[in-house]
Amino acid sequence: MNYDKEPELPDPVPVSTRPRWLLGLLAVVVLAGLGGFIVFWRGAQPPGPRGGLTAAEQKNAAEMTYLEGRLAILSDQLGRLGEAGPLADQLKLIEEAVERQDRLRRLRPAPVPQDEVRFAEWQTKLGNVRARESNRLSQEAEAAASALGGRDRPAAVEKLKEALRRQREVNAGLAIPSLKNYAREARLQQEAEHLEAEPLQAEAQGLLAQARAHVAAGRWHDALGQFARARDIQLKLNRDYARSRFSDLLAIDRLDAEMAALSATEAHDQLEALVVRATAAAAAQQPAEADALLAEAVARQKLINEQFAKSRFVSMERLEQLEADRQTWRARAALGEVAELDRTATGHLRRRELFQAQRLITQALEKLEAAVAQSPKARGLGEELRQRLNYLGLRQADLVQIQDQTYDLLQPLPGDEPFALLKTEVPQSLYGSVMNGNPSRNAGRTFPVDSVTYAEAGEFCQRLGWVLGATVRLPAEAEFRRAVGHAPATATNAWGLENGPGKSRPAGEKPANANGCHDLLGNVAEWLAAEAAADTALVAGGSFAESRGQLQALPMRRAPKTERARTTGFRVVVEIDLAAAR
User: Is residue 348 situated within a structural domain?
Assistant: First the structure.
């Protein structure tokens, strides 16, 4: 007898002649008996050179035989139940089958691919049954939530959450795709969030309405409290109900801005009150108090800018304005002293008391520089005052020479006004001393300056006026005509020179015994005064004029103020009583 050969199982009875449950039972009995026989037979054999099964191996073999038989019975019973059978019965059978199939595959001495396939199949069946049950329960929960409606919102929310939880279990399980529904999961979540978030949204809106009512009534503290509570609710809505229509990230920024505005309101009100008090102090000639009050106002604006960045009161421009006001008022006293020194110095210059003028100019410059250094943002420092003092400070060494040369060239202007007119066109030597430059193309120290624009002539007048302490300007047309009427009889041909365009001769060069103004109708033409807004000005005289007898035909032309002609110069009027000044 061959003891190594496994005994063969008897042929099964045809299914058509016996019930299926009987066949399963018979298979279990046969397999169990066969397993016992094998164990007995193996145990009876003495160990030989090929070895035999240990007691543990024999036990495992018997258990595997039993598991295979039991799995066959479970499969048969599940088939007879079908998908329409009670879910509880199906679950009981499949859960046992999954457990026994897992046990069987673990007992195998070596892995068997068929075990893994059957284990996966049993798991899928278990997932399907559970999914059907979860879907049924989820739909019942959703229906219950709909029935509750708005009568019991918390209960309806709980039912929707239950429906959502069961749908998620199905979607995350091992069931077949046809039993899963991801769109329903998203819908249930959105409906649950909406139902739960709606009361929170209503509460937030009510708080905002109360807060704005407090603002309208001026109750800032109460308003801030309501705004803060509404903000906390909105944060919860954004965090916990992000998919609902009540989530609004921008709402937090808007609430922060409103809260910052309220928080900054008190500081802003204090700022405005300080500005009012500072203005009153300045009007009462109390610069120290005005400066202290404005310093507090500046501090309030800095506080608003730094701590309430979202407030509508944040303004770097306002901060600069307040600081400029403060520095302006702080510098006002010093500027008053500078202006007084300047007025006194101007009087000395007008009286040709140059030593006293130079000393006062130095003092005024020192005070002005100190005021500018201390208050660099101050407004109304007087740009012309600063320019005049700086110019006079730079030209102090030339003041005597400029005044002497100018007064030597001055002659009373015919008429009722105590004004003086330069006898000649402005010579290049005087122009260079005043302007520190010479644009002339017909160069010569004693020649009249030429190639000057109207603006350059005006700037010369302004600077010479600073030196003389008097107003210096271009002649008006009427003044020029009056001067021509008193000019020497021969203003052109008596020179024996060819005075054509582009020709110049020494300013004021004249024949013996000639008196009065010279070259009004000869030498270079001259700019006359014009309206500041005008683009053109009159140019009178020039070397093409012939004599005083042709006054009715006085050569004049209108030229652009920007014109720079080598045949055009100018002379000046000084508003000063020449007799008194000398």
Answer: yes
